[in-house]
Amino acid sequence: MSNNNTTIKNNKAISNRRDFTPLKYSKGKLMNILTMDIETMKYPGNTVQLPVLITIAHLNVSNKQEITTFLLDKKILSDKGLNYAIDSMWMKMFNYLSKTVESLNKKNSNKSVIFMHNLGAFDGFFLFQALINLFDRKDSQTIIDKEHDFIQITAKINNIQLVWKDSLRIFDVKLDELCQTFEVKGKLNKYNDKWNNLELFNDVKELQIFIDYAKQDSLALLNALIKAQQIYWTNYNVDISSIWSTSTLSLKIFRLNFLNKIIPSLTRAQDYYIRKGYFGGATDHYKLYGENLYYYDINSLYPSVMLKLMPLNYIKYHSSIKKENFNNFFGFCLAEIECPKNINIPLLPYRNSNNDVIYPTGIWKGVYFSELLKTVIKHGYKVKPIDGHEFSKAYLFTNYVNHFYDIKKNAKGPTRFIAKMHLNQLYGYFGRSQELIITKNVNDEELDHILHTRIVETIITIKTGSYVALMKGNLNHELIHLLNHTVDLTNYKNLERNVKTNVAIAAAVTAYAQIEMIKYKTLPGYEVYYSDTDSIFLNKPLPKKKVGKELGLMKNELIQLNANSIDKACFLGSKKYGYRFTNKDNQIIDKSIFSGAKRDSLTFEEIEKISKGYTITKTYPNTFMRNFRKMQIAIKDRKISLSISTNKKLINNNYIPPRIITDYDPINLNNHSIINKTFKTIKLLFKRLLN
């Protein structure tokens, strides 16, 4: 196998590459930040939320705070009805906003961005619908993620381009916490449930309290974001208004301040192959019930493994890998795996036909990071490499991780918050999905053309004669051409085009994290009850040398909880468990994590009841329920049924790992016959969609 100094051979034309290169500092001006908040109420006799108040805050051309409100007009509501009153409120706001942005852009010779704290899952629903209803459908567009959360909304109003982004996507904390972090004044008070009713308009005094509450929300967000903008600009030369999320912010900081070499991107074929070996964190359960347990998690697990050697330059594809050469191979390979039946804690993940990740015994084929395979071989696995993609190695993140970890250890306030946030977000960008959804607003005549030229995710009706088509934005037009014409799919050149990502790095990080956890799952003399991405429940304390505050060492979670040990615990499946402990003040505390339920909302008695086969129903009042097709949000009570669900048999308190025997072979994009079969399947699905 090639050594660490191997460079890329036979590079594609530079125009075909989408590599990660170091960025140069810019002396440009900061963007203008505006903040906006939408308050809603339910209409009598209905649970659907309707916008009734919009507040906008910004620094005006004299650099002074300005807050403007747009309230549903009670007289218009009475004379012309609810819909007309809402449209009138929106029009006043849009006219004001376009004039304000135009003025700010001229004054500062720069662009403006409007931030909303939860554009993605709340405000965007009302904003997008208003834009579609009031303006030419061609003048607005959105970018949406696969969960149908809004990433960005753009619109041209009065010939002015308006851009809305989600500050929650950058700083994933509630507004009050964001304000506390950046040391600015937060909310005036808590939201009052009685405000969620149009009857509030009959109470002038209480209505003013509601308006003041909303105005402060916009002002608080503005002050927090302006302070954040200044900190990032001063320390890292990055304008937070220029990015969309924490991970894109982390990447920009990395490229501007820490990246000193080119990180190549991958071709679509390489991405498809290696993504099969991208499993994320390892979560598994081994025993149902335990007493006197100890709970640990690793200090910054992902940042600690980012200090290891990462895949860098692509060397070559090996159509076969000899077992004797595997120790010198670094990269990702398809291998035949055999996990002995007598292994009680399987170490290697497997993605089954339902796309669930399990940890089985048995025999199968899968794509894995080479270093993870070398690790499990030491613990009894038999591994037969088949083929693979080889990379050179390099330390990529050492300076970045050390910089932010030192700040996290020693700083307080905003700088510590920033450091902690960026330690855990950078690697994920390299593994981001290639699925992105963009919107196209169309009428009846245009809809047929859209269906024949793009692959459509969903079509939603906004109003009579108008549709919104949600389309996979990452698809290449060449693919559409191939799907609509009889072409030899084995000649599909797009597989050689590069994607703006490098899943090899993200997959290596998560695989290294699994390797670290394997060290604790296999400690001699210990019983393991449950393990998560970076945490573990054990029957006795870890040796002192493995516990500490340094990067990569374990920390005792019970110290944070003011307790010595867990009195009793019950593990019902992955992300489904609860435990009880008595703290040093002699208080009995219950903790629970159960998929679908709110954290710590289950008592230990309820957890035990579920473990015995009972179904528990929990009701969570005043829950926001989204309907993306209708572009509606309602506040309702949410009821969920919780029951035990595991793919493992239970014998004498021990879960028995699932055992599989399969000849499943992940799609190898170097095999043209499989490429042909794959795209024929896509073509068939596409024809069904059109019908």
Key structural traits:
alpha+beta; 691 residues; disordered C terminus; Nucleotidyltransferase, domain 5; eight-stranded antiparallel sheet
Task: Tell me what the structure shows.
The chain is α+β, with helices and mostly antiparallel strands. Among the domains are: about 30-255, Ribonuclease H-like superfamily/Ribonuclease H (Nucleotidyltransferase, domain 5), CATH 3.30.420.10; about 560-655, no CATH class. Helices cover about 30% and strands about 30% of the residues. It contains 19 helices and 31 strands. The strands form 7 sheets. The protein has a 10-stranded mixed beta sheet. Strands 9, 10, 21, 22, 23, 24, 25 and 26 form an 8-stranded antiparallel beta sheet that branches. Strands 11-16-12-15-31 form a 5-stranded mixed beta sheet. Strand 21 (about 530) and strand 22 form a beta hairpin. Helix 1 (about 75-80) crosses helix 2, helix 5 packs across helix 6 (about 205-235) and helix 11 (about 400-410) packs antiparallel against helix 12. It is globular, with a radius of gyration of 27 Å. It starts with about 30 loop residues before the first strand and ends with a helix. About 35% of the residues are buried.
